[in-house]
Amino acid sequence: MQINEDHKVEASPPPHSIFESLALHLLPGLVITVIYVAVAPLAIRYGIPLFLVILVLALFLLIPFELGWLLYHGKKRNSSLSLAGIVVYRKRIPIRRFIAYTVTLLAWVFFAAAVLYRPMEKPIIETFFSWVPSIYLLDNFVERLEEYDRTILMITALTGVLLNGFAGPIVEEMYFRGYLMPRIPRVAGAWAPFLNSCLFSLYHFFTPWQIPLRILAFTPLFYAVWWERNVYLAMVVHCTANLAGMSMMLISILKVF
Asked: How many Å apart are CA 42 and CA 30, to the nearest integer?
């Protein structure tokens, strides 16, 4: 049994210039962060969790831009709303190998987050980001649940599951791994997945203290996608990892009720 794909996808699409690659990797996250910082004080004043602000910005700006960019170029290339030749890395791989990759890479993500990075997180924040108000540390949201209205908490949790657990990761993987990574300038060679990992991590400008975590946790996954030419690996691992985090948040929220 094999994962289905579009057999007509372009194996080696034309590379972007260095400027194009940098801009397309970083500008979406930079725009979201600027807006996030601008509206955060107002959200805090009205008791709206900043995590919900990020989700709303993803829903109305980030996802539409990234998906819209792909569909726009699909329309230009295929004269229809098709992503053939736009989102590549859809090569078939045996389902057993797909599962083996998924289990191994998920284990690494959780190990990197819980064992390797966790002891470093507080020192990194205290050393380099002590100037950031604690309310902006999204991880603190779970520790401040009792400060928020219960209805707002449930909206945040359900929106998080849908957007952070499914829609966001799927669109990001199509955009970053299926579209941008194959088009990184060829001079990068085998460094392309690592560069893509670094730029993807930096794209999360609103949580810069987690850049080392994302590079550490996801670089092996991106190399697997690059090696196997299969973006679905990244979709499954990314969604599952995010859903695990959202599940823990949901459990914490339910304890407040």
From this structure: 20
Dihedral (CA of 100, 233, 201, 181) sign? positive
| 108 touches 222 (CB < 8 A) | no
> Nearest Cα to 256, choosing from 137, 141, 138, 139?
141
- Given a contact cutoff of 8 angstroms between Cβ atoms, the answer to whether 183 and 21 are in contact is yes
Directed axis angle between helix 50-57 and helix 150-159, to 10°?
40
In this prediction the pTM is: 0.94
Q: What is the mean pLDDT of each run of 10 residues along the chain (257 residues)?
A: 42 92 98 96 94 97 98 96 96 97 98 96 94 82 88 94 97 98 97 98 96 98 98 98 94 84
Helix H segments across 90-135? 95-111, 118-128
The number of residues making up the chain comes to: 257
DSSP-assigned beta bridge partners for residue 94? 2
